[in-house]
Amino acid sequence: MKKILVYQRLERPVLQELQIKYDVRFFNDPNPLSNREFVSFLQEADGIIGLELEVNKTLLDHAPNLKVVSNVSVGYNNLDIEELTKRNIMATNTPGVLTDTVADMAMGLMLAVARRIPELDQFVKSRQWTQSLTEEQYGTDVHHKVLGIIGMGRIGQAIAQRARFGFDMEILYHSRTPKPEAEAKYDATYCTLDELLQQSDFVCLITPLTKETEGMIGKREFQLMKPSAIFINASRGKTVVESDLIAALKEGQIKAAGLDVFTKEPIEPDNELLDLPNVVTLPHIGSSTYETELAMSRLAAENLEAALNGQRPKNLINPSVWETAK
Ligand SMILES: NC(=O)c1ccc[n+]([C@@H]2O[C@H](COP(=O)([O-])OP(=O)(O)OC[C@H]3O[C@@H](n4cnc5c(N)ncnc54)[C@H](O)[C@@H]3O)[C@@H](O)[C@H]2O)c1
Ligand SMILES: O=C(O)[C@H](O)CO
């Protein structure tokens, strides 16, 4: 029976289906390589499926039998693709099935920050709403404002669609290459990063985390933004220099931020972001709805099983492994 290592998250019905066919073991340790059971199961594992397991050279040295690593996420910055490819191990992810859900969350963050929804919810629940509101409780409009999207991929475009047609926003975008079809669809304008930062009322970051995007938004970039700008990060925490973000928020270089992702997750209790009144925080819930988590688990399991059964997985990240195997 093939051995499957499940890490951190896989929806129960999918886990149960895998358990019928394979020898499945679930692990959740933050430092799995220090767990002897994990290392011993890894020695024989044919496949890994799960979320955010750091699959690097050290881990792979303990996994001589591994054929596939199936990420239950679209982002795969946790995988050393070069090392996996070198060892002929297939890597897969779950693009597409979470696009609309993440875009909804990004719009939710924009609205929550601009209209100060969490703060005013607390105001009402703490019984402070005893007379009519003053200017101090006013928010900022979202509709008809300029939205700059950094990373105009699947999710970036789903955000553009909502913002353009739901909120009449003007869309600027920056991506590795211009996207003429997206420009036509969403009336979007391609900009350099600096132009986007200077002109946007809302800046939404939704790129993958790569060597190029790590720390792409830092002190210089916050200085370019309008003092009234609202910054949304739905990508990965490390795309932003967090200490520079904190400084920009404290010094009024930007107005506010909505963050679903952080440099260290779960966030450390002493992270200053938690004490800033102009920040709305979420615990990395971009794709976390019942429907979408199930769809991601199903797709990840399909990818895993295809690889184990000698078929080409639908969402293969390193196709050269397949070409070599043919
Ligand atoms: N917060 C969450 O829960 C959550 C959920 C899903 C995805 N994400 C993040 O969103 C990312 C994007 O997902 P997607 O499905 O839209 O991916 P995608 O590949 O369709 O889009 C990524 C876009 O980023 C652009 N890009 C890459 N490098 C860039 C750079 N250096 N400068 C500017 N643009 C660059 C690409 O050109 C592409 O258009 C994921 O990799 C993941 O990190 C977060
Ligand atoms: O990349 C993704 O799919 C999400 O961030 C994982 O929850």
Protein model, in words:
With 326 residues, the protein is an alpha/beta fold. It has 2 domains: 3-95 and 291-325, Rossmann fold (3-Layer(aba) Sandwich); 99-281, 3-Layer(aba) Sandwich (Rossmann fold), CATH 3.40.50. Helices cover 38% and strands 15% of the residues. It has 13 helices and 12 strands. The strands form 2 sheets. Strands 8-7-6-9-10-11-12 form a 7-stranded parallel sheet, with helices on both faces. The radius of gyration is 22 Å and the shape is globular. The chain binds nicotinamide-adenine-dinucleotide and (2R)-2,3-dihydroxypropanoic acid. Nicotinamide-adenine-dinucleotide (NAD) binds at residues 74-75, 95, 98, 102, 150-156, 174-176, 206-210, 212-213, 234-236, 260-261, 284, 286-287. Residues 107-286 form the D-isomer specific 2-hydroxyacid dehydrogenase NAD-binding domain. One of its GO terms (cellular component) is cytosol. This is Glyoxylate/hydroxypyruvate reductase B. Keywords: Oxidoreductase.
Order of helices and strands: EHEHEHEHEHHEHEHEHEHEHEEHH
Give the rounded overall mean pLDDT: 98
Q: Note the overall shape.
A: globular
- Write down the oligomeric state: single chain
**Any idea what the CATH architecture of the largest domain is?**
3-Layer(aba) Sandwich
Bound molecules: nicotinamide-adenine-dinucleotide, (2R)-2,3-dihydroxypropanoic acid
| Percentage of residues assigned to helices | 25-40%
| CATH class group of the largest domain | Alpha Beta
Question: What is the makeup of the main sheet?
Answer: 7 strands, parallel
Count of the domains? 2
Placed side by side, the strands forming the largest sheet appear as 8-7-6-9-10-11-12
Structural class by sheet pairing and helices: alpha/beta
Name the poorly predicted regions: none
